[in-house]
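Dear colleagues,

For the upcoming journal club I promised to circulate an example of a predicted protein-ligand complex. I picked one with iron/sulfur cluster because it came up in last month's discussion. The inputs are reproduced below in full, followed by the predicted structure.
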Amino acid sequence: MSEPTGGRGSGAEVQHGGSPGRSRGSSRGGDRVMVPEADFTSYYGRPIVKAAPWERDIAYYLFTGGVAAGSSLLAGGADLTDRPGLRRAGRIGSLVALLLSVVALVHDLGKPSRFLNMLRVVKLTSPMSVGTWILSLHAPFAGLASAAELVGMLPARWQRGPVRLLLRLGRPAGLVGAVTAPPLAAYTAVLLSDTATPAWHSAYEELPFVFCGSAAAASGGWAMATAPVAEAGPARAFAVGGAAVELLMAHRMESSMGLSAETLHTGKAGTLIRASKVLTAAGAAGALLGGRSRLLSVVSGTALMAGSLCTRLGVYEAGLASANDPKYTVVPQRERVERGEQVRYQG
Amino acid sequence: MIGRKSLFGPLDPAADAGYTDAPKRKGFFTDTSVCIGCKACEVACKEWNDVPENAFEMLGTSYDNSHSLNANQWRHVAFIERPASKPAVDLGMPSVGAPVSDVDEDDKPDFQWLMSSDVCKHCTHAACLDVCPTGSLFRSEFGTVVVQDDICNGCGYCVAACPYGVIDRRRGPEGDPKVGIAQKCTLCYDRLTDGQRPACAAACPTESIQYGDVEELRERANARVELLHERGVMDARLYGNDPEDGVGGTGAMFLLLDEPEVYGLPPDPVVTTKDLPRMFTRAGMAGTALLIGAALSFVRRRP
Ligand code: SF4
Ligand code: SF4
């Protein structure tokens, strides 16, 4: 390679518009350097791939979608094992989360008709298309079960005619909602990974587990905070298991992502990820030790939800940071080429 | 049609998309060794395709004030200004012969320019097209990738998916009917259907942008690199020409005089959908684990 345009080392001599190729990222924050400073060339330090032009809505949607999915699962289980209080918490949680999800999605798209526009095709190569269909399959059933729950809270004299029918439909609808919930929790990881955004793409092995764990922790937390303590045993178990999976897989993810893992430790994303770990671990400990106390249930449930939200926001922000710094695009590709591992089609 | 190579590997994109009797695949060969940075391509593209102006800013980065490829910039000429590293070699630029210079060798400026006109690569495996949830992006009969403005939802998924950072959602100017809609080079689809060459290629005064059948362009590119190597320009290299590369080869290939990243191109991009089957498998495993986890939370205890 001849004179780099803006690589470290030569940057100083480049006079006219010399590229600040590698000035960003690791110089900021400065708390810890995870990977040795990478030497690379770029075009005036400008990004190579484009960051997703999404508002934070999408990050909130990742969270509410997880809560909706986990709550539907808990509601289904509670229904089958005869825990009316937990069932109610689950169904109402899923309703609230679904409504917020739809609001976030529609806000990001601009208008509701655009959601329908997505239903004009089924496209297996588009995780967004697949996700739209998963949501369209899950939401009506989960919504029906929630409606049945709400109707069941009405005074007995109103529960007549069509209302009775709705009550009957509650269980089957809730069970369909529960079965269609896991794809809803998992697909969002594919949605992020199937992009050229370095931090998201390089996380594709572990991200679904992080997101599913996060969904269990958040929905378990919600149910701990809202369901009667005596019935919330399964919610605590679900939350603790989810938190453990989330923390463990996030740890594995950070070590397998390579250079772009840096973005999970620096800047806004770094703060969010650190907060998510503390909150999730504290919430899980609270669920494990003080689950039978009303106050502790509410506190640790809230911590678990906040932890899950921070995970989503952190992963989202890390992705944007990794797209905006050309280092995360150039260096791993360059290193791969130099190792002689170019990506080539093999028979 | 889903075939074995639909997500990765060399194929004829038009045939893969279901066209029978499609014309030969069309594309660009941009020979940056003869680019003079005149920006005629940028202007012609804007004129023909009615692309509104970009934010006008003096960026102080050589002569490059048009930022990058984006929704309002379907062609972008990169100007790399840097210290001269080697003696000038005659690249065989089309010319009638420069007037004899009366500047002393020692007084000549000690820097050189690399210029390159960048554009959508019209990938064989186009991530933008594959991830679009509305079917707004489609493969044309010429093997190119085109956006249908009236179907695009503006979800921006294609923007994050393109490994070259080409496609973008239009942000302004205010009042433009296509604000919020994904925009990029169409390889002048409307001109191609009319048997004409794309506007940028027609406007290029040095034949730096050549348009034609991809197969033939590839041969021309190889011959040109060989010629430059013979003349001692050992840095000449091709980019995007290899059908076995990470995106199955591109419809727009480039002859570069330095590493791709110097021009703001990714060194060895891979279409993100190559890993999609694995991603769905992992998601399926995680989802199943979630379902089992939920079930286990209940079976272990009674209320
Ligand atoms: S370069 Fe980007 S926008 Fe162009 S076809 Fe390839 S993936 Fe699509
Ligand atoms: S922004 Fe438009 S073209 Fe791009 S993926 Fe979304 S709907 Fe498709």
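Two points we might discuss: Residues 35 and 345 of chain A are 30 Å apart (CA to CA). Chain A touches chain B through 100 residues (CB under 8 Å).

See you all on Thursday,
B. R.
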